[in-house]
Amino acid sequence: MNAIVALCHFCELHGPRTLFCTEVLHSPLPQGASSGDISGQNEQAEEEEGGIQMSSRIRSHSPAEGASADSSSPGPKKSDMCEGCRSLAGGHPGYVSHDKETSIKYVSHQHPNHPQLFSIVRQACVRSLSCEVCPGREGPIFFGDEQHGFVFSHTFFIKDSLARGFQRWYSIITIMMDRIYLINSWPFLLGKIRGIIDELQGKALKVFEAEQYGCPQRAQRMNTAFTPFLHQRNGNAARSLTSLTNDENLWACLHTSFAWLLKACGSRLTEKLLEGAPTEDTLVQMEKLADLKEESEGWDGSEEEEKPSSQPDVVEGQELSKCSPETSLMPDCNSWNVAHRRLSVFRSLRHMRQVLGASAFRMLAWHVLMGNQVIWKARDMDLVQSAFDVLRTMLPVGCVRIIPYSDQYEEAYRCNFLGLSPQVQIPSHILSSEFAVLVEVRAATRSSLYPTLFDDEQSLNKYEFVVTSGSPVAADRVGPTILNKIEAALTNQNLSVDVVDQCLVCLKEEWMNKVKVLFKFTKVDSRPKEDTQKLLSILGAAEEDNVKLLKFWMTGLSKTYKSHLMSTVRSPTSSESRN
Hints:
The chain is of the alpha+beta class. Among the domains are: 1-27 and 84-216 and 239-266, no CATH class; 349-444 and 461-476, Rossmann fold (3-Layer(aba) Sandwich), CATH 3.40.50.12430; 499-570, Arc Repressor Mutant, subunit A (Orthogonal Bundle), CATH 1.10.10. 41% of the residues lie in helices and 15% in strands. It contains 20 helices and twelve strands. The strands form two sheets. The protein has a seven-stranded antiparallel β-sheet with strand order 3-4-2-1-7-6-5, with helices on both faces. Helix 15 (481-491) packs antiparallel against helix 16 (497-524). Its main location: other.
């Protein structure tokens, strides 16, 4: 995070002063530097850790060195500083921590070395301890502008038996130029900085209580009540924070805390590029995942023990491919997502169209888009599952209900994709129904039926595909508009398989938008049929097949979208606007 964290103090002699600050440097790491190294007072240790360049630069510009410091360096002179205004001793190189993952250095000293940064920190320090104060003088506050940066400031008191009012005033400030980021980090910064303050106040309170127990100051001051206060100081009024907390490692600990605060605050918030609102498929998938999570949380061991040990309807060796009645309605059920299938027979819609033929594929695709039941009968479960995997790409996720493989016929209300073994008997009324299509996979009568389409790994030349339906689609039938566009994309050899997949996504999104308009128009607003016909003409979906498709796809709308529309209808403001 590009920010500066500083500890400030209101000195009774010199006013607001910066005691200690930590800044972020994005310069490359020196060779041999290790993560989390701290450059301390030992020069030899600094050379071993590879931080000598940083430490030397800090030392040459340290304002605490008095006469040896450059006259142009920022910061007050040594004569303008007392023990209460000084943190690091003269000649102290400061502290440096290296983050190898991000090649960032966290540098701590009493003042920033850059003159512009020194001015920004100095102004924030003065404002945090003078005019920008929250009620009670203790607590967080936010201020700043575009020119001098934005500041999160938390003021607090430290107990001191020798100070006026037995306490001294401090603040911890965080300065950065990004106002939105700083505001979003308010809860995080408040909690962590509050923890640092509590630790400092706890240490100071112990020292204060020990000093008061040994030599109470209140009675002594009552005896000298008429003596001017300025004559009582005798140099004891200026006490360093290390003396108040009795912690010689205070500044090293503060450097560690400030460096961690900058790193953690910078990594907790990340920017994500949003390309738009979530699609209906995304919303439906999220809802189904939430439903599955609720079901899994509701399961317990007692229910599992009550289940029978064997399933009479499950053929041996097919347990993994037959879904339970509850999970079979989910397109992403566990048996459907068998990892690393042995063979992917149908690679794409274009591949399936080549295998089945143009007329048979058009009939099958028409029934898929209309929401009719698609039944595949085959011995090879991988073949059936790959066929469903390809065909489902033409439908919205909410319209897909799959039973990949079963040893008995399932009604259409339970699934619109059904895989069956060849021995299963299908009711005669289903075979003659116009709302179902059957694909039978038989052994090929010739040894090589499709020699040019397949390589050695794929053995579709062993099969013959027979597509039948009670309502065959005539060749001259116009069909739904989306089917014609899908076929045009599949027949265009200039389009790769990936491009065709993107075309399918765009077509589905286009027609789902039409479904949303029709749903609101008919189900929410309850418009008459005449107005509905006009709307369908405007949408370019007045043909019979397009209307059937829209009505079927309406079942795939997410619950989130439907509830949102219904809630807007029930609200008083929406009813007033319609009136």
